[in-house]
Amino acid sequence: MQLKWDIVALPLPGHRLCVRIDGAILQTACLNRGAMKIVVSLVFCALLLTMSGLAREKSDVLVMNNGDRLTCEIKGLQAGVLYVSFDYIKGTTEVNWLKVNHIESNQLFLVKTTQGNAYTGTLSSKETGEARPLSIEVVNQQDHTTELRRKDVVQIDETDTNFWRRFNGEINSGLIFSKANSSTQYSVSSDVAYPRERWTAGGGFTSSLTGNTGAPTSTRNEGSLYYRHLMRWNNWFYTGVGSLLQSTEQDIRLQSSLGGGIGRYVRNSNHARIGVYGGLAYQNTKYNQIAADPSQNTVAGLLGASAELFRFNKTNLTISTTIVPAFNQPGRVFTTLNATYWMKFWSNFTWNISFYGNWDNQPPPTFSGSDYGTSTGLGWTFGNR
User: Fold this and answer.
1) What is the percentage of the chain residues whose pLDDT exceeds 70?
2) What is the DSSP letter of 127?
3) Phi first, then psi: what are they for 79, rounded to 5°?
4) What is the pLDDT of residues 232-265, one digit of tens each?
5) What is the span of the domain harbouring residue 177?
6) How deeply is 21 buried, as exposed, middle or buried, from its count of CB atoms within 10 A (0-12, 13-18, 19+)?
7) 152 plus 169 within the same structural domain
8) 0.70 exceeded by the pTM?
């Protein structure tokens, strides 16, 4: 998204969807109906977004350093890799960006630079006798041309005048069942982004369930949103963030957070994008079993960081963390950490492993101060992912 929308699904008593296997109802595999509706909706929307982008003609031109001239469809540039597709080759092909001498395309692209700037327009570059072009020209819809040095270009994404074709994202899921103790674990997550020249909006959803015979079912649902807008100074931005959390491990019925601040991309290259930010936040936490004061309000500071690392062989590592020190409860600190590593193994399908965690160093008496875990499974990307 950076307005990032992460939607959360909360357990609703009496609204569970049970899975029947070989005539036996597995109570530990009962899934929250609200979560299932969100997952089905996300899959349906992702399919629509994917289908909307299938019609573009392969009329872009690549001229390689060795003189080869290729007609293709340019998908995007990331981590020093130019992704293209051909009429006569199935799937997407990876091309070393340094081996390309000249490009021409009438498709609209969103081009990002090491300075954090972004430009939208068609692409061209002048053919030269050197090993690679000295610059890339981005021509916007008003016919204004911006010339960028090749070494400054870190990312190129397809975009469109059509609203729906600008989205990109991913959906991941995993399921483990053990007969020995009727143990069932499932996880599902999604992420969607809407990038523009000066701002980005995004959102995601994560849900996990763990159940064993003779033990209460444990659920965790988390949603978050963010918005980032570039400032006039290179790589500086202001941001807004929000999140919702439900955790049976910590007896949290609903924790709502809202904050904002100013940040900077400390690294912005072909292989890494790292940003940090700081500001203020407000948090409200509703617990399940506190009769005297079931709701707690917190005014706090906000410190956050995010990192995204890429490699040529279609691997991606994302890490995000927030630290929220409470002003009205001195010494109390809330911390969250999320990390995902995924690797494409065929077309847009991925294998992934994830870690999630949230901590409270001063929880209510007898309550757990942490909830964390890992999951692995398969996923699917759409758009420019």
Assistant:
1) 79
2) -
3) 55, 35
4) 888 899 999 999 999 999 999 999 999 999 999 9
5) 16-50+165-382
6) exposed
7) no
8) yes
pLDDT (tens digit, 9 = 90+) per residue, 97-152? 888 888 888 888 888 888 888 888 888 876 655 554 557 888 887 888 888 887 78
- Nearest-Å Rg of the Cα atoms of the chain is 23
DSSP alpha helices (H): ranges in the chain? Answer: 33-52
DSSP string, 2-50: -----------TT-EEEEEETTEEEEEEEEEHHHHHHHHHHHHHHHHHH
Number of domains composing the chain: 2
Instruction: Classify each residue of 131-148 as buried b or exposed e, where b means 16 or more C-beta atoms within 10 Å of its C-beta.
Output: eebebbbbbeeeeeebeb
Q: Which CATH number do you get for residue 359? A: 2.40.160.40
The pair of structure tokens assigned to 20 is 């029947």
Q: Are 224 and 203 in contact (CB under 8 A)?
A: yes
Which of 97, 127, 161 terminates a domain? The answer is 161
User: Is the per-residue pLDDT at 290 higher than 90?
Assistant: no
